[in-house]
Amino acid sequence: MNEHANGHYSASSYRTPDGAPSDIVIFTITSSERAGAKKALPTRRLEVLLIKRQKWPFEGLWALPGGFTKETETVEECARRELEEETGVSDVHLEYFNVYSKPGRDPRGWMLSHAFVALVRESFLAGRRTSDEAADVALMPVEDAVGLELAFDHRSILEDALERIRVRMLTTTIAKEFLPEEFTLSELYQVIRAVIPSFEERNFIRKVTSTQSRKGILEEARDASGEPKTSNRYSQRPAQLYRFTDYSPMLSIYG
Amino acid sequence: MNEHANGHYSASSYRTPDGAPSDIVIFTITSSERAGAKKALPTRRLEVLLIKRQKWPFEGLWALPGGFTKETETVEECARRELEEETGVSDVHLEYFNVYSKPGRDPRGWMLSHAFVALVRESFLAGRRTSDEAADVALMPVEDAVGLELAFDHRSILEDALERIRVRMLTTTIAKEFLPEEFTLSELYQVIRAVIPSFEERNFIRKVTSTQSRKGILEEARDASGEPKTSNRYSQRPAQLYRFTDYSPMLSIYG
DNA sequence: GAAATAGTGTCTATGAGACAATATAGC
DNA sequence: GCTATATTGTCTCATAGACACTATTTC
C-alpha cells in the first residue's frame, strides 16, 4: 500500500496524499404553486443538496455529498458514482470545476478534493426527499445554505459552485438541464432568474426569438403535422413551446 | 509516511494516491520582424514551452514542465513554484483548468495531475532560450507541439489548454498578458489572431472603440498633460495607444 | 511619390430597448 | 367581463458589416 509502482522514481520517499475525494454540489430548481392564483407561474427556487455528517470530523454539520476516488477510476467517475449512490440519479449534467488542496483543510490528513457541480431536475429527486433518511439529507435554498456553517471548506466550494453556474447559465445552454424537453419562454426566463436573481430582460421573448446572433439556440416545437405546439399549463392564453437546438454560440467581448 | 493522520477515518485501509503533480502549459507569443519591410507589423506566433525528459518514464520525449505537490502547499502554489524553477518567472497569469486522473496515465503509479495554463510575455523568457540547457527546454509553435508524441497524456492536456485559452482570449481580457501596458489596436488584433487564427473582424478598430456594450474594456492612453499617446513602432502613421481598464463585461447568450 | 499602417465616411440592414396595445382562454 | 399571461406594434437610436476613402509619417 502506498508504495510506488517501481523504484525508478526518485520521489518514492516523498509524502503522498492520503486521499482524493470528489465533492459534488448538487443543484436543483424547485417549483411551487403560488397560493391564490389558479393558473399562475410557479415560484422557482435554486436549491442545493446537503448531507448531515454522522461522524468525525465535523459531526453534525451539513456537508456536500462526496466520497473517495478509487485507484481504478477517474475523479469524474468517482463523482458520478457518488452522485448515483447518494441520489439514485444517473445521466445528469456533471461538471468539474475546481480542486481544493489547502493544507489542513481536512483533519483526517492530506486530502485533495475535486469539486463538481451536478444539475438535476426536481422530478429526479422527488422520491428522495421523502425517504427515511430525510433528516440527514436536505434540499435547501442556496441562500440558506451559504449562511450555514458547513463542514470542511465546503462553504467556499459552494460559493465557487454558485458563481460557476451563474456564469454558465448565461454563457451556455445549461438552462436545459432544469427544463423539460419542450418549455415556454416564461419557464426559461424563470429558470434563469432562479439562478441569477438580478437577471432582468424586459424584452426577453423578443430577444431570444428575434435576435439574429442568438437565433439558433432555440427552435419552436412543432407537432407531427408541423403545427406549432403550445401549452397553457401556466397561463390562460397558450404559450408557444420551444426546445434548445444543439447549437451553442461562441461569445466574444471583441465583437 | 502515508499513514493516515488518525484512526477515526474508516478509509485508512484504502489505497491512496502516489502523488499529485502539477503540470503547466506555458504559452507565450513571439514576435519576429518580417523580412524586407522596415516598419511593418511583426509576425506573432503562439508558442509553448516543453521539456525533454531525461529519465524513465518516457525518456527522450517532450513533456510539459511540472512537479509534485508537497503536503505543505496547494496545487496552485506547487504550479507557481515549478513555473519559477523552470523559467525563472513569477507574477504571471496562472490559471488552473483541469485534473487528469485516468488510471494508468502514469507508469510510476496512481498520479492525479493538475493542469495549469501560464501566460508569459516573450520578454520574460528571453534569457531562458539561450541558456545552457537549451537542448532540453524548447519553445515551440503550438501547431508543431500538438503534432509531436508527448510524454504521458500531455498531448491531451495541451489540446485542452489550447481550447481553454482560445475561449478565454475571446471572453476575458487575458490578451493583456501578452501585451505591454499600452498597446496599439493592431497589436491587440495580432495577439488575438496568434491564438485564434480564424478570428477575423474587418472593422476591428471600429468595434472595440465605438461599441457601447464593449466600450469600457479599453481606454485611450494619455500622457501627463492629457494628450493622447501614440506609437509609430510598427507603422509610419502613429497609432493611438490603448490600455485595458479593469472592467470585464459579463457575456450572455440571451441578451 | 511609394509604402505601410491608421483611421473615417457612408450606406444599409438589423437589433436593442421601452411601452403600449392586443390576443387568448379560463373563470 | 375580469384575470393572468402571451405576443405583437411602433418608435427611436445604436450597432454591424461592408468597403471606399483619407491621413500620417518614413523612406
Automatic annotation (TrEMBL), chains A, B:
- Residue limits of the Nudix hydrolase domain? 17-162
Single GO MF annotation: hydrolase activity
Please name the InterPro entries in this protein's record.
Nudix_hydrolase, NUDIX_hydrolase-like_dom_sf, NUDIX_hydrolase_CS, NUDIX_hydrolase_dom, WH-like_DNA-bd_sf, WH_DNA-bd_sf, WHD_NrtR
Q: Which UniProt keywords apply?
A: Hydrolase
The entry sums up its family as follows:
Belongs to the Nudix hydrolase family.
Q: What is this protein called?
A: NUDIX hydrolase
